Amino acid sequence: MHKKIALLLTLTALALALAACGGNNDNNAEPSGSAGASSPAAETAASQEIVINATTWEFDKAEYAIPKDTPVKLTLNNTKGAHGIEIEGQDIEIRGNKSEVVTLPAGTYEIRCSIMCGTGHKQMVSKLVVS
């Protein structure tokens, strides 16, 4: 009897963990952070767009590169699951399928998933090289 209850609880916990990163592409997610955020006119002035595709516990690239001191449109595309990105050391956070125009000084920054998305959440890291 105890084995059946333990199995049921284990399966329930597994289902909940997997559902945390399951297909919630909410286009009405919270607005993104404010640093680097610009008016719609500034979005048209962005020199380029970088699309970051987020899937279950990973970004599509280990490293992204943008020019320093230049407005760049960062777009987060949740291809599988509900994710966000934050750029460490900067006040930049993008949640859901949103974009933000950012201008950063030269350096190497860490991009992390900002929404707890399950057991692989801590490994959801990439680099942003600004030069």
From TrEMBL:
Keyword Transcription regulation: no
Annotated signal sequence range: 1-19
Keyword Transcription: no
Keywords in alphabetical order: Signal
Domain of life of the source: Bacteria
InterPro entries recorded: Cupredoxin
Protein name as it appears in the record: Cytochrome C oxidase subunit II
Originating species: Cohnella suwonensis
